[in-house]
């Protein structure tokens, strides 16, 4: 056994334990008895302690010091890169700070939920100030020894390794004006009709299973359950998703399912050789989101696929107020004004994200005080969406991310959309008759292409390289913008 | 923090991790995707490694050496007793032997399953000889430093701490002749009719939920799912049970459920103060089985409760060939000849167990060679059951226990029945009008008494003391025998 073999054996066991911790989270959201909360809290803390001890174990540092990249093949080098990054990240943050952060964010989540329910930002502010102070302290610790000393970039690495705020700002800077213009045109045009009536929730779940299969979700390596929030959980051989139903909005269930199938398919299709290694999971949040979004939007909300879906929905639900496939395509893609990111459409979604990206950079840089956040939010919202936020629960208190300390996470949503735009362009070039299959509910040409050109590699390449390799060109925001303008121009008639 | 506080904090975290490992087992038997087997195997191995390292951590030995019983209250002393016993047990077995046993028993289970399917004992014998040799080696390691040097007693401690083969042999020696005589009388009498027809399996599950509630199962702290084998899993706030259905035998589902509710109720009702401590779980297999069996048999198969159940089954299933409550009581309690322990009735069940107890003591003592096991089994079976075993899958290959190295486990089944007999006698004395409630499907007088007199204490007292404390008299086999003779005499008319 070489040092590398020892390290990989240790890492494999750590990955297996992390997988168990992930399953515990799935269990809590789906099947756990209501009265088990306190005990489950201790169980989570116990396994997190085990994981933290392994991830900061000095033996890992010794192994890393003893291994030379030159002795390894590309897979070995990629594994080593992930382990080095993780070990450096985890050993840079003092245990005391990690513990203070865990406590503060746990407390903050409860205070935030109450403050949001009561539209009371003042109630949340002191707690949130504490979270921000600790996150800035963490960012300072993480940025030690980094090539760039930027606090925000240090946090961004947790979600998008190799990403930088400067690159994102440039990309998003090009995205924003064309999106604002597009939103403006759309909201000035005639609105297509939405669906009407109620939709049996068991039938929705049955259709969700059918649609998941249509998108290649492998039920031998996963399952679908209902939960309050849709999510995908796990890697490798056990990748479970959840969805939810609304009696009046069948698209909530269906498109949440397709979105999560995108995440899950990525995890299910990674090369078996990477199982329980650092390469055996999606490489970044941005790349992950590119899979969920291309499944959901460029494929799932396409004219071709919605044509098939219209028939399946008519079979299951009868008449729901939509006359034909074209009207259904428009109904699926309706753009309506609204304050809430998670209820947003393809066009406005990125405007929600860009707003958060700019504000959170200011917060972490120390240029925006917590007390000034609601007004900064509302001013920016009015500039981009043309309306004034009516209450703070529709403004800066709407998302759980900041209260639990997730700074640097938001931009990966839009980065994922940009990457989905690039992948979609490459896919259309590689499979010119894609729509023929989609119109019959057959996504296999698309999902096979994504599997072969991206998903199978897992964490082998860095995030941006993963997209570049799949597309064969340098990723940019242009394909997404071109796609959105063409699609919504067609629907809204401009 | 004293050494005791440190030890208890460490133990609490170990218990939380053990709880996670147990939940992983539940997941595998109920909801895990089929294709996840290999990954799950690595997950199990990883968490078992963590648990083994904690349970043999020399720091525990240091803490134990630094703590004086005299400084602790009764609860502290009981915790210490459990931790001392567990630490001594785990450190006595060399790691190499533990690993060899894990491998041998894992292999053996597969070989056994094939041998049983082909009625081929010769195929199983070499593998089984290896398991027996390793278990004798383990017993020798465990019996070092014990007051009694008996190999079998050393193994028995894993399931019934404080128990001894000599005590059990005396008890079972008194049990056996009266059971043989009772079986003989019953099988010589006229057989009551059984149920006929088929029973909707969804309706069976609905009734199982109703019956579980009737026995006080707390759905806030648990759930019921279907699985291949019925079991109860977990302690404290999250105690889940499984059951199964057979279209032609509704009693399989219903009485498996009641049995598992007995196990689960014990775990759910332990004093919250013991949560995630060594006292927070059932104290032994024998005491655990006393709960499952008194729920299932003395309560669930009583004339009073079956009277209520008959009405509920008629409501759900219509006519199933049983005319009235008395006939239903007889149908539920039918005694029929058979080779298989798990399909057995209250009367013959203990004869199955006593046979195994006697044979496994001889095996571990080195007095019975593996090659001679089938003949020894068949001879004893004929003596106790009056018929010759027709094939080895109906004989010594029927149970998984020995193939996976569970020697010392079987007697706890009969000990549980004996304890259930004692508890039932004490309960009837404490609650003279018990049948009034049972006849209305109300078990609360019984389950409250068991909760207050036994379940709440968890592992506070040693197993036999737990029963003695609840009953107020010295446990013996007499109450069980008196109960069985009276009940089956009434049903079979002698």
Automatic annotation (TrEMBL), chains A, B:
SUPFAM superfamilies for the chain: Metalloproteases ('zincins'), catalytic domain
InterPro entries per the UniProt record, alphabetical: Peptidase_M32_Taq
Name used for this protein in its record: Metal-dependent carboxypeptidase
EC number: 3.4.17.19
Sample GO molecular function, one term: carboxypeptidase activity
This protein's record includes keyword Hydrolase: yes
Domain of life: Bacteria
Residue stretches spanning the membrane: none
Known role: Broad specificity carboxypetidase that releases amino acids sequentially from the C-terminus, including neutral, aromatic, polar and basic residues.
Keywords of the record: Carboxypeptidase, Hydrolase, Metal-binding, Metalloprotease, Protease
Record family assignment: Belongs to the peptidase M32 family.
Catalytic activity: Release of a C-terminal amino acid with broad specificity, except for -Pro
Pfam families documented for this protein: Peptidase_M32 (PF02074)
């Amino acid at each position: 056994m070489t040092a590398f073999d020892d390290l990989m054996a240790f890492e494999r066991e750590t990955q297996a334990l992390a997988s168990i911790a992930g399953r515990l989270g799935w269990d809590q959201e789906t099947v756990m008895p209501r009265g088990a909360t306190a005990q489950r809290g201790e169980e989570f803390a116990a396994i997190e302690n085990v994981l933290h001890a392994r991830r900061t174990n000095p033996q890992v540092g010794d192994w890393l010091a003893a291994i030379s990249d030159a002795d390894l093949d590309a897979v070995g080098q990629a594994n080593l890169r992930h382990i080095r990054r993780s070990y450096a990240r985890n050993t840079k943050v003092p245990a005391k700070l990690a513990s203070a952060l865990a406590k503060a964010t746990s407390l903050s989540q409860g205070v935030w939920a109450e403050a949001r329910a009561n539209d009371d930002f003042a109630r949340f502010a002191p707690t949130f100030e504490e979270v921000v102070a600790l996150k800035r302290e963490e960012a300072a610790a993480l940025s030690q020894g980094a090539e760039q000393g930027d606090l925000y970039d240090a946090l961004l690495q947790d979600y998008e390794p190799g990403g930088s705020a400067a690159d994102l700002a440039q990309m998003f800077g090009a995205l924003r004006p064309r999106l604002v213009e597009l939103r403006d045109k759309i909201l000035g045009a005639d609105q297509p009709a939405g669906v009407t009536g109620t939709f049996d929730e068991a039938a929705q779940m049955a259709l969700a299973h059918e649609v998941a299969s249509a998108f290649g979700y492998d039920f031998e390596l996963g399952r679908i359950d209902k939960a309050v929030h849709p999510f995908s959980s796990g890697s490798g051989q056990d990748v479970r998703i959840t969805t939810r139903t609304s009696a009046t909005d069948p698209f909530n269930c269906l498109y949440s399912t397709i979105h999560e199938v995108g995440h899950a398919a990525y995890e299910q299709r990674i090369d078996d050789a990477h199982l329980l290694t650092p390469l055996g999971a999606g490489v970044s949040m941005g790349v992950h989101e590119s899979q969920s979004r291309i499944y959901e939007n460029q494929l799932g909300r396409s004219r071709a696929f919605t044509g098939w879906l219209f028939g399946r929905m008519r079979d299951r639900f009868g008449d729901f107020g939509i006359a034909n496939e074209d009207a259904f395509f428009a109904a699926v893609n309706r753009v309506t004004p609204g304050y809430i990111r998670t209820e947003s459409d393809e066009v406005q979604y990125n405007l929600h994200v860009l707003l958060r990206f700019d504000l959170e950079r200011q917060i972490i840089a120390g240029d925006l005080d917590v007390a000034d956040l609601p007004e900064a939010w509302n001013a920016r919202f009015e500039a981009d969406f043309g309306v004034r936020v009516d209450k703070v629960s529709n403004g800066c208190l709407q998302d759980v991310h900041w209260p639990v300390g997730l700074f640097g996470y938001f931009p990966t949503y839009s980065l994922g959309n940009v990457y989905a735009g690039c992948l979609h362009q490459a896919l259309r070039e590689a499979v010119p008759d894609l729509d023929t299959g989609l119109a019959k509910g057959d996504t296999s040409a698309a999902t096979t292409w994504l599997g072969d050109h991206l998903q199978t590699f897992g964490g082998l390449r860095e995030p941006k390289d993963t997209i570049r390799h799949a597309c064969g060109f340098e990723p940019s925001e242009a394909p997404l913008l071109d796609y959105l303008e063409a699609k919504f121009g067609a629907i809204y008639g401009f």
